[in-house]
């Protein structure tokens, strides 16, 4: 596990966290952060993927505003700061930085590349599926997908979305719009987790729900095994 820099599409250097498997990678996974930055939970996601045989890389997508932001959602002041940072974040630039990470991961692994994102990262995983050549994507409790359904025609590779049924940031109407817009898409699979709240698959903290997290992660592992390697 190490910190690296990745050349961005506009010729700058972006910090990222990288976790390597013990042997040759079976594929690579770009891990897309929540609004809390590349914190201990996101690094743990990378480490777990590396233990499963993948090269895992989490780009610091807030680096253009302030490199190295790490926040704890269980601390109210840090949650409020995270919401503020999200409001200032340029998502289009973020997707270009994800694309740069995909290119880096593909070159470093010599294999297929997937993406998995959480919260804001779940939304970005959807956008990545629609706007890049990533081989497969997974989004956990993605926010605001209803406003992105106009891009669904561009999703050419498999996408899986995990939906928290009692999500405080994704209401029932938004969830219904996601199903109405995506259920018949040949490349998209939606999974619902009734009664679960936003953040249920976090590695640490109060938001985690073990049973739902385990089920979602098992589905994600099988999905990547099928589509990445």
TrEMBL record:
Domain Dienelactone hydrolase, first and last residues per copy: 14-227
A Pfam family hit: DLH
Gene3D superfamilies linked: alpha/beta hydrolase (3.40.50.1820)
Listed GO MF terms: hydrolase activity
PANTHER family: ALPHA_BETA-HYDROLASES SUPERFAMILY PROTEIN (PTHR46623:SF6), CARBOXYMETHYLENEBUTENOLIDASE-RELATED (PTHR46623)
Protein's recorded name: Carboxymethylenebutenolidase
Organism: Sphingomonas ginsenosidimutans
